Amino acid sequence: MTLKPLADRVVVKSVEAEETTKTGIVLPGTAKEKPQVAEVVAVGPGGNVDGKEVVMTVKVGDKVITSKYAGTEVKCDGIEYNIVKQSDILAIVE
User: Fold this and answer.
1) Phi and psi at residue 88, to the nearest 5°
2) Which value, in Å, is the radius of gyration of the alpha carbons in the chain?
3) What is the pLDDT of residues 8-59, one digit of tens each?
C-alpha cells in the first residue's frame, strides 16, 4: 500500500531517537520523548488550500523537525508514519 498525501499534507517517518544520553545513561522506552526529527516520505501537491495558495517547500528525503504533537499517526505495512500539514513542519535539518 502507498500513502499519497493530498493538498498541503506531508507524510513523515520518525527518525529513531538516541538510546543513551551523552553521559552514557541508557533510556528505557518509557523515558524517551516523542521524536520530533523525521524524514519526509511523501509530499502533497500543494495548491489552493482554504483560499490561500500553498507552495510545497519540502521534498522527499528531507529531514525535518515537526511540532511535537502535530499530525495524525497511521500504520502502513507495519511501519508507523505521521501525516502533518506543511505548516506543522518547523525546520529542515541540513
Assistant:
1) -85, -5
2) 15
3) 999 999 987 556 667 777 666 554 566 689 999 999 999 998 899 999 999 9
The grid coordinates listed for 9 are: 499534507
Q: Which residues contact 72 (CB under 8 A, 6 or more apart)?
A: 82, 83, 84
Q: Rounded CA gap, 78 and 57, in Å?
A: 28
Q: Which residue matches cell numbers 502502513? A: 76
Nearest partner of 68 among 93, 89, 85, judged by Cα? 89
Gap between the Cα atoms of 4 and 29, Å rounded: 30
φ, ψ of residue 78 to 5 degrees: the values are 80, 0
Q: How confident is the model over 56-91, as pLDDT tens digits?
A: 999 999 999 999 889 999 999 999 999 999 999 999
State the Cα–Cα distance between residues 60 and 26, nearest whole angstrom.
32
